[in-house]
Amino acid sequence: MGHQGGLLPSLICIRPPPGPPLLLPSPNRGCPGARSRPAWNGSAGRATEPGLPREMSLEDGDPARPRGQQVNGEVSGVPRLRGMGTAAPGGSRTEAMAESWEPGTAPGDGDVTPAGASQRAGQPEEALMRELSELVQKVVKSSSWWERHGVDISILACSFLLLPAGFLCLRSAQAIPFLAGVLTLGVVHHTLTVKGSHLASHNALTESKSWSKVWAIFFIELCSAFTVEQATYNHVKIHHGYTNVIGLGDSSTWKLPFLNRYVYMFIAPLAVPILTPLVALDLLRNVEWKAALRTLCCMFLGFYCHYWLLLHVSGFQSPWSALLCMLLTRSLLAHPYIHVNIFQHIGLPMFAADRKPKRIHLMSMGVLNLPRNALLDWSFGHSLISCHVEHHLFPSLSDNMCLKIKPIVSQYLKQKKLPYNEDTYSSRLQLFLQRYEELMVHAPPITELVGIQ
């Protein structure tokens, strides 16, 4: 639902590698503070020769911190991958480290890199993804079932066991036990609907295909009031397959341009429990009637069970008070749910479908990790909070396994001088409040990667 207007211009100033001077097309304006560096128009410009796409070759030096000044969401020297390239306050630790961009097909990546792109000193891109995959595969093979699946299943099981305590606490006429019940049911609801549904959509709960289907129906349709087919297609096929690709996986479905920044960031999330089933009902037009009927039955059963338990276990006397309590518990963590979904992709480089980079570069540039948080780690899972980069690189791994491979992935990307984006929650929140119009209303600029031979 994102705005489909014109693209915002952005400039990327690139320092060429040592050697003969490189002549680049002159842009309309240069990057302030850049010294002896040619400048690009990274969003509006096109290849100087017909049919010759461009990729970006970034400077090798200064791996710890990119240098340069920010211009229109990009940084002279190298892109600083925090919210269109700006350095947001609040202790952010975005590290944009990349060398050169080269052709090649990473495992599971079917896009095509144009000819003429530069290569990394005899190490083409498919070798990077293959090498990283081999490192991760060694860790996975050496891990026990408990590490691969047991930890996350235990968290979901504990959440189920907390349900009776939550409903019984709501019987109390005292404020503290009642609020404890609301908090318990709210955390349990988001653990089942966010963490459980997310793992089930990626078949990360079990290695059995049959049980994966069962868990997907249970968590996505019964608990989350959504349809499995559309959830899997939109999240796994589109979002993961085309991360930060304009018109496909660019997270524009999270944008509501007609809302101002404060309404969107602080009031609109309260409507998530109402909007989710309404969107699901609309999407049922795109599935077979058997799947639609199954989804309707599961959605009704999930809502009715919650409503019935509030009336007969928690002792609510009025249907409206029970419905209000349902809304309260189901929206308890809706604010961080919305924030996390926009913080970790929007504001990072976006690409055109015909010129997107290969998998390892696409995921390292277009995904951001947030710091660990006990509440969100439990409710949403590591793969959605502090291990989102790892999750996008290896989406079939469970939350616990994403956390286990995090040191390997981060070290590897930094060693190869590829971006590994990290920022704090407060920093991203401040960034989105300050630049809401640019990030959430207007269409994002397209990042074009320029290869320098």
User: What's the count of strands?
Assistant: 6
Q: Can you count the helices?
A: 16
Poorly predicted ranges: 1-122
Q: What fraction, in percent, of the residue positions are helical?
A: 40-55%
Euclidean distance between termini CA atoms? 39 Å
Mean pLDDT: 78
Structural class: mainly alpha
| Strand arrangement, major sheet | 1-2
The coarse overall form would be: globular
How large, in whole angstroms, is the Cα Rg? 23 Å
Report the portion of residues in β strands. under 5%
Largest sheet: 2 strands, antiparallel
Order of helices and strands: EEEEHHHHHHHHHHHEHHHEHH
Question: What's this, in brief?
Answer:
It contains 16 helices and 6 strands.
Keywords:
single chain, 453 residues, mainly alpha, two-stranded antiparallel ribbon, 16 helices, disordered N terminus
Description:
The strands form three sheets. Strands 1-2 form a two-stranded antiparallel sheet. A two-stranded antiparallel sheet has the order 3-4. Strands 5-6 form a two-stranded parallel sheet. Strand 3 (70-71) and strand 4 (74-75) form a beta hairpin. It has helices at residues 125-141, 145-169, 175-201, 209-223, 228-240, 261-267, 272-283, 289-312, 319-330, 334-343, 359-366, 374-379, 388-393, 399-415, 425-434, 436-441, and strands at 11-13, 39-41, 70-71, 74-75, 368-369, 421-422. The two termini are 39 Å apart. Mean pLDDT is 78; it is low at 1-122. Helix 3 packs across helix 9. It is mainly α. The chain is 47% helix and 3% strand. The chain contains 16 helices and six strands.
